[in-house]
Each structure stands twice: as C-alpha cells, then as structure tokens.
Specification:
Layout (H helix, E strand, L loop, with lengths): L1 H20 L7 H10 L6 H12 L6 H10 L1 H12 L8 H21 L1
Helix pairs in contact: 1-3, 3-4, 4-6, 5-6
C-alpha cells in the first residue's frame, strides 16, 4: 500500500516542484500524458526533488536516487529536464542546465556500474 501511495503521490509532487521552479511550465496534453505514463512512475518523490535540485540548483545527488534515475532512463531524463530548461525564465542558462543534466547522468551510470 505504501509503495502504491508513493507511486501515486510522486507525479503530483514532481509537477508541483516543476511549477514552483517554472511558473509558466506547460506541455501539450498528449506529451504530458506520455511522460506521466512512461517516466514519472519510475522515480520516487524524494529523488524527483533531488534531481531537480541538482540540475537547477547546487545539490548533489545521492546514490539511491542515481539508481532511480538510471532506471528512469536517459530519454525520460533528457526530455523532462529539457521541458523545464526551455522556459523563458531559465532559457539563458539552458546550456548550463543541460551540462549539469549530462554530468549527473554520467555520475549515476558510474554509480550504477559499481553497485
């Protein structure tokens, strides 16, 4: 039951975090549904917050979130981060955010290979 609740709550938390960082966040309905169904269910709410904090802040990702991120997959990570980074309020630093995204991915792949 707790796992189901976590899986249901996580997408809501992720969307709330994204909206807090990006008030003008919007994707068309079919893209949002596709991302919801294929990407957001694979990662915990804690890790979603951690990933956003790493890319758009100065946090460091913990090892357990690295495993969740790798399970989510590179395509999902790239798509979700690009949606956030493309917002007008963040666009000027998009290159930095995409580099941080790629650095985080490479770090997580290395962590996953050692586990």
């Amino acid at each position: 039951m707790a796992k189901f609740t976590s899986q249901v709550a996580m997408p809501f938390i992720f969307v709330a975090v994204v909206c807090a960082f990006v008030p003008v966040f919007s994707v068309n309905e079919s893209e949002a549904k596709s991302l919801w169904d294929t990407c957001l269910v694979k990662i915990s709410p804690h890790c979603a917050l951690n990933i956003v904090a790493v890319v758009f802040g100065n946090a460091t990702i913990n090892d357990s979130c690295c495993h969740d991120l790798v399970q989510e997959g590179k395509v999902c990570q790239d798509t979700l981060i690009r949606y956030i980074a493309d917002r007008p309020t963040l666009f000027a630093r998009e290159t930095l955010y995409l580099k941080k995204r790629d650095d985080m991915w490479n770090h997580c792949i290395a962590i996953s290979k050692t586990a």
